[in-house]
Every structure is written in C-alpha cells, then in structure tokens.
Design brief:
Radius of gyration: 20 Å
Order of helices and strands: EHEHEHEHEHEEHEEEEHEEHEEHEEEHH
Structural class: alpha/beta
Distance between the termini: 38 Å
Shape: globular
Largest sheet: 8 strands, mixed
C-alpha cells in the first residue's frame, strides 16, 4: 500500500508518532518486526527530568499529555499517578534536592521538599537516617506495551499495522526482509536501538539495563523511589553503574532497577551486575530482603552522546525523518516527541523549540 507516512517501529515512540500523524489527517503505515525492544523491557516511568532545559521541556510537555490521555486509556495500560520521591541520603543531597525543587517549580512543576520525618511517614519501609526527599507529585507510571497498542487503536484516522522486518530504507521507500517494497511520502524511523542498523550514521549506541520484579506485596511502597545519585548514573557515558530505583506497580508488585552498561549487546542477565543492583536497592529498602523476586530480565536503551533524542528531518537523506535515541526516557517523552515531529513533518508551528533535538547538532560537531 502507499501511505502518506511509513513509521518504522511500533514501540511507544513510534506508536505516539503514528497517533499524532493520524490526528493531523495523514494516512500511516506502521511496520514493526515484533522484537519488543525498550518499550517491552523498560520500567514505564513517567518522570519530569531537568538535567538540561531541552530535557525538561520535552519531559514536562509529555507529562501534561500523559495526564490528558490517562482518563481515556484502557485499564490494562495500568496508568497510576504515584508521584516520585527523589531521595536525599545526606545534607549535601538535600541541597541538590532544593536546587531541583527551585528549577522544577520555576517551570510550573508541582513539587515539595520532605524532611526526614515526613519521608519516614510517607515510606516507612525505607532505611532510617535518610535526610529527606523531593516529592514530584505529577510523576506517574504506565504499562508501556499496552499504552502503545492503545495509541495505535485510538487514532482518529485508521492506522495500518503490518508485522514485517525492514531491511533497508531508500529515500521514501523501504525494502522488507522478504524483498517486497513499501512506499510513502515520508519515512519515519522510530525503531529504538534497531535504528542504527537501518541508518548507520546515527550516533546511537546500546546501553544495557537489568530489571527485577517481585511478587505482589500491596502497600509496601507508595511512590516511585529514586536516589538523587540516579541523575549522574543515568548519564555516565562509559563503564557500568547502578542506582536505586523502585517502582510500585498497580498490581502490588515492585519493579526494581536500575543498571547501565555500555559496550555489550549480550541480552543475558549477568549475575554480578544484578547483584550490584539489588545490593543498592537493599541499602535503601531493607524490606526487599524478605520479598520474593519472580523475574529478572534485561533490555537495551538507544543512547546518544548528549543524552537527548534525535527528532526531525534527516539532513542528508531526503524523505527520512527521525525519532530515535531516547535512552531511558522514551516512555516519558513519547507524547511531546510525537507532537514536535508531527508539526515538523506537516509544516505546522512547532509546540516548542526544535533545534536542540535535531540531527544537525551532531553533524556540526563532527
């Protein structure tokens, strides 16, 4: 079939983009190889991040859209507005929390500082002695695979989904693994870590992560819990790191992260890295020692050198558009990514400044 746009990838970013393009009145063909990818493997956290102004804009605008969608989403999308507690282990980290509070509040993000006593009351299972936390009440969680399916099904104009592996992109045509071709007015590459195979000049590389999930223990944890050290850990460009991140799922299970490793494409669960991650979690949440872990797994995030995604037209390949390199924030930032991409592709006014996310930034640096 011929479509206005072919979207490669039906993960959360590709699904959100297809949804927005259909809202703009375009016919959309989504091609997906059924590999699952980061959408299937990730935590599904929806969190405002403020490492730099571009990240803050993209995540904040996305959270607004997630909350707009939430009342209409299917129950199996498991959206829950649990909020995030950024944990400060000591006075120095409380200073970091205060700086983060000022930044977020200046941009209209609802948040408040909790002292040690208030934190202990909010989350009694945490170890004693923590200095406090920053509570960001609008942060949420969602089950991303079902949310992606919901987005494709809820578009106002029908989206065609075809399970097929894309072997090559040539302008606004794609060749499938079976040798057949699909054509469109434009091609949008939103295939996560697989995007590098189809577009080798993309500056993305895999960042491996481990996750574990417990049996059902309702009420053990009430908010998403993240150590403030997670911020620096998340943007390490080399080596391996772990940080405490525990998320309560609506099922009553606890999802435990997080780890980061470069320079490996082996999907196997690695006992030493898993042990480091769980040890870090136990340091903050000793009660985990008595809980039953029912599954562990890994996934790969597509990381760019500066930690920001690549959104917009490929400057050297006519007909090709990009929505890749979201690393661990793909679920969070999919909605605003889609709004920005759809505006650019249709010639509408962008919802916010597009330049920080353009591929040109890497070509200029090179």
């Amino acid at each position: 079939m011929n479509a206005d746009v072919i979207v490669i990838g039906a993960g959360i970013v590709g699904a959100a983009c297809a949804h927005e393009l259909a809202r703009a009145g375009l016919s959309v063909l989504v091609l997906d190889a059924g590999l699952g990818g980061a959408t299937q493997a990730g935590m599904g956290h929806l969190v405002v991040m403020d490492d730099n102004p571009a990240e803050l804009t993209l995540s904040h605008e996305s959270l607004k859209l997630w909350h707009d969608w939430a009342p209409r989403m299917n129950a199996d999308c498991a959206f829950a507005a649990c909020g995030t507690l950024w944990l400060a282990a000591n006075d120095a980290e409380m200073t970091v929390a205060e700086n983060k509070r000022r930044c977020l509040q200046a941009h209209g993000v609802a948040c408040e500082l909790l002292g040690a006593a208030a934190l202990a009351a909010a989350e009694p299972a945490l170890r004693p002695g923590l200095a406090g936390a920053l509570k960001v009440s609008g942060d949420s969680v969602v089950y991303a695979p079902n949310a992606a399916r919901w987005l494709l099904a809820q578009a106002p104009r029908a989206i065609t989904l075809e399970q097929a592996e894309v072997a090559a992109i040539e302008g606004s045509r794609v060749r499938l693994a079976d040798g057949s071709w699909r054509s469109a007015g434009a091609v949008l590459l939103a295939a996560g870590i697989e995007a590098g195979r189809l577009c080798p000049d993309l500056p993305i590389r895999p960042k491996k992560g481990h996750l574990a999930i417990t049996d059902r223990y309702p009420g053990t944890v009430h908010h998403q819990l993240v150590e403030l050290g997670y911020i620096s850990s998340a943007h390490h460009s080399d080596g391996a790191s772990v940080a405490f991140n525990v998320q309560p799922r609506p099922t009553g299970q606890l999802l435990i992260g997080s780890s980061r490793q470069f320079d490996t494409t082996d999907p196997a669960v690695e006992a030493p890295m898993l042990a480091r991650m769980l040890g870090r979690a136990l340091d903050y949440l000793p009660a985990l020692a008595g809980l039953n872990t029912v599954r562990t797994w890994t996934g790969f995030r597509a990381a760019t050198p500066d930690g920001l995604p690549i959104i917009g037209r490929h400057p050297r390949q006519p007909g090709l558009w990009l929505a890749v390199g979201h690393e661990g924030l793909g679920v969070t930032t999919a909605p605003a990514t889609a709004r920005l991409l759809a505006a650019q592709l249709t010639g509408a006014a962008p919802p916010f400044e597009a330049a920080p996310y353009g591929m040109q930034r890497f070509l200029a640096a090179a």
